Amino acid sequence: MYGKLKKKILYAPLFTSMLLMSGGAAQSQETAVDFKNKIIELEQRISGLESLKQELQELKKNLLQKEEKVLAKEETLVSEIKSIKSLRKSLSVRESKPRGKWHLAGYADVGFEAISGDNNDSFVAGKFNPMFHFQYEDWLLFEGELQIVTNEAGETTIDVEFSQLDFMLHDNITLVVGKYLSPIGQFQERLHPSWINRSMNAPTGFGHGGVQPANEVGVMLRGGVTLTDEVTFRYSLSAGNGPRFGHDDDELELEGIGADNDSSKALGGRLALVHKSSLELGFSYLDSGVNSKAGLLPDGDMALARKGDYRLWGADMAYTKGSWDIRAEYLNAKNSPSGGTVAGGFEEVNWEAWYAQMAYRLSGMLDNPALGKLEPVIRYGEFRTNVGDELQLSAEKRWNIGINYWLSSSIVVKTGIERRNYILVNRADETRYKVQMAYGF
Amino acid sequence: MKNTNYIMIASLIISVFAGTAAQAAESVKKDPMQIVRGAKSWAQSCGSCHNIRPPKDLTDEEWEVSALHMRVRANIPGNVIRDIIAFLQASNNEKVKE
Fold it and tell me: How many domains are contained in chain B?
């Protein structure tokens, strides 16, 4: 179509000029020759155009063919990509996040102790406390800790320090069920592991045979609430089996007991306010009934039926800014016979213990890296037990002075001197020289 | 005070360069301030009973378990613990070119 039009356009001037010229009667031979030549020239041009047209058509054809080839290639590429993708899917293993995680932790310590007087110096095997944590998703945690100790008689004892399930009910509420460390005060629950304790043992009255329950079997609700930018509130509220009478009236069994021998549960816990300046103030309370039936004790002694009301309260503080670690704690417990001494079957027992402790890590004022690992520590504490009005033999004033060398944040070598001044004159005072190495892992 | 400033700056740098842990990176994208908050809370509440434990003491996964343990033991609110975990994991994964 386009070709035809082109031809017409080319011929048009030829015919018009022919028409114009046919008007003249006399035409010279020269003009006829010119005409012929022009026609020849035009015909040549036309044939040139024809060949151009052919070339164009061929080019177009080639282009179309190429386009087809490219399309076909594109298709094979797409299908290849698809097959590679499915191959990758079938070969690759999707890394999934397991629902359960676990962590093995704990601590151990070894030491040496020389005691003044008739006692022998001895290496202390110390403790090995493995601790297990199993976490399911982000709402359940099992914590269990064993305490393995070799005692003076060479026997190895294993105790369950705690074995508890923690349910994260809410960001501010955790439910704890099982055997757990007593939340009363600050030493027992938080400071007793030897890699945490800045001194080498528990303050007087805060360890075994002291005022403080060690563990509890029961349920506990605990958590923290951010009150303001500066203050956090922390609480632990426990309901457990509570303490039990021991052999003597002033010896309560305070180590979490697996069954309750009375239906009165021990209710108590600790409330604390923590300021962002690293100051913490805590208040503890525990209230429980303690009962025992009359009968023969394992060592053959006779015991009367006893019925008592046990009540404990305590206050603690900690300031732990930078290199400072300053703590103080007071505990006061009373076991009064229910309905008076005769009905209760025993005389009222009072326990009282307190300590104040200060440690300072020298890195706070020295740039020397070796000296900066040193930490002097000093602690003073008192412990008194009264049965009725009578002060017991355990009444003591105790000084601890020591230097710790921190090899890492949880590995420490502690050296120190302990002076025990027993308040009753018929018990000789003691000085103990100690070295202990503790590792928390 | 000097210490907190240092930690803030360090955590900012870490939060910018912490690229390796997919999870940490993801949470950084979602909440870029989480690591900064975590660093602050770590400095403030993880050294009040024992020496503060540095991020490189444990692996990412161990931190999750251990921090949950500390949430219970120290009565620290859950949201604060999540921030602290994000900080510890991000710092744990900091790659230093030699």
Answer: 1
